[in-house]
C-alpha cells in the first residue's frame, strides 16, 4: 500500500512537495487552513492531487504516515500539536527533495541576513561557469518541484531556520552560515539559543568530504563553534586577519584560497557595494571555489552581478531626492546594514509586524544619519518609544502611498528616502515583495 503523505500548507513549498510525492508513488493529501492561491489550486487539480482549503480535517490528516509541514506553520499550531502527540514523523520540504535528488550536489545557504543576495550571487557564478544548476528554496522556487520536474546536477538553495527545523537526513555538500542575529524569536520561545541551534543544523549531517563556510567575525557563530564538533572542512571568511584557507580582505584586496589556486581581487571591482556585501561576496567566492570553478569565472561573475529587487534597490531620484527600496529588510539587523551604507541625510520608512525587535541596535546610526522617520504599520508604538527622543519628526502613515508622499514632503534636495522596514510585512501587505512594489509605484506616481 502506498505511504500516505499529508502536506500542511498549500503554498510554493507545499505544492512542490505534493508534486514530488505523487511522482514518487505516495498517496498525497494537501490541507491548508486558509485559501489557496489560484495558481496552486489549479496545479493541484491538474495533477489530480486531493486537497482541502479553509480547514484542516483531523481524521484525514492524522491518518498520515508522514507529514510535510510548510515552513510558515509554527509548532504551536493546534494541528501540529496533534500530529506530534500521535507520533507521526514531521519533515520539511528540503528533506523530501533531498531524498530524491539522486547524485546531485547541494550548496545550502543560511544566516539571518544576506541569504538571498549570497544565494543569487553563487547561482550567477555557477551559471556563468556553464554549470547545470538551479536556484531553489526560500528564494521563491520549490526545491521539491525542481527535483520532480527539471532535475539538475547542482542545487543552490537558500534555506531558512524553519526549513532546517524538520530535517532528518538532509545533507549539504557545501553549507554556508553567513551570520546569526536575533530574528524570528517568536518562533523559538524567545530563546536565542534555540534559534542558533536551528541555524547550525545546516552542518549536522555533513561528512569529511563536505565544506562548511562561515563568518569568523561573527561572535555568535564563533562562540557556538566551541561547543560542537564539525566533521566537514571548515572555510572561514573574515576582515580581521589572514586565513590559510577560506577568504579574507586586507586593505582593498580580497584573497581567496580553497585548494591550490588562489584568487585575488580588488573590492572596488565588486558589483555589490557596502561592507556587508563584501562578506556576502567572500562567502560566494569560497563556495564557487569548492565547486572547482576557475578564478577568471569567479572574478567575472562578481563584477557583473546585478543586485536583487527589494534589496537596496535604487528606484528613482525625484527633484533631487533619491528613493531606495530595501523592503526585504524584515529585521533590525538588515536595516542596520542599509543605514550603515547611507552617506546622505536619510528619511527612514520603518514598521510592519514586529518580531520582538530590539531597536537599540540601530539607535546610533539613526541618531547620526536619520532626519525623520515615517512609520508604515498598524502598530507603531515601539518605534515611537525607541526613537521619540532622538528623531525630531516621527509620522504615522497607513499606506505605501501615504508613506512616500509624507517622506517626500519631509525630504530636501540631496536627501535620500529609504524604505527599510525592519519588520515583516503581513499587516498591510501580502509580503515584502508586495510592499516593495507598492512603494515603487508610489514613487513613480510622485
TrEMBL record:
Top-level taxon: Bacteria
Cited InterPro entries: Mur-like_cat_sf, Mur_ligase_C, Mur_ligase_C_dom_sf, Mur_ligase_cen, MurD
Alphabetized GO MF terms: ATP binding; UDP-N-acetylmuramoylalanine-D-glutamate ligase activity
Mur ligase central domain boundaries: 109-287
Pathway noted in the entry: Cell wall biogenesis; peptidoglycan biosynthesis
Catalyses which reaction(s): UDP-N-acetyl-alpha-D-muramoyl-L-alanine + D-glutamate + ATP = UDP-N-acetyl-alpha-D-muramoyl-L-alanyl-D-glutamate + ADP + phosphate + H(+)
Record-linked SUPFAM superfamilies: MurCD N-terminal domain, MurD-like peptide ligases, catalytic domain, MurD-like peptide ligases, peptide-binding domain
EC category name: ligase
Transmembrane stretches, start-end: none
A GO BP annotation: cell division
Entry binding sites for ATP: 111-117
UniProt-annotated location(s): Cytoplasm
The enzyme's E.C. designation: 6.3.2.9
Gene3D superfamilies on file: Mur ligase, C-terminal domain (3.90.190.20), Mur-like, catalytic domain (3.40.1190.10), NAD(P)-binding Rossmann-like Domain (3.40.50.720)
Cellular component terms (Gene Ontology): cytoplasm
Residues covered by the Mur ligase C-terminal domain: 310-423
Keywords for this protein: ATP-binding, Cell cycle, Cell division, Cell shape, Cell wall biogenesis/degradation, Cytoplasm, Ligase, Nucleotide-binding, Peptidoglycan synthesis
Similarity comment: family membership: Belongs to the MurCDEF family.
Described function: Cell wall formation. Catalyzes the addition of glutamate to the nucleotide precursor UDP-N-acetylmuramoyl-L-alanine (UMA).
Protein name: UDP-N-acetylmuramoylalanine--D-glutamate ligase
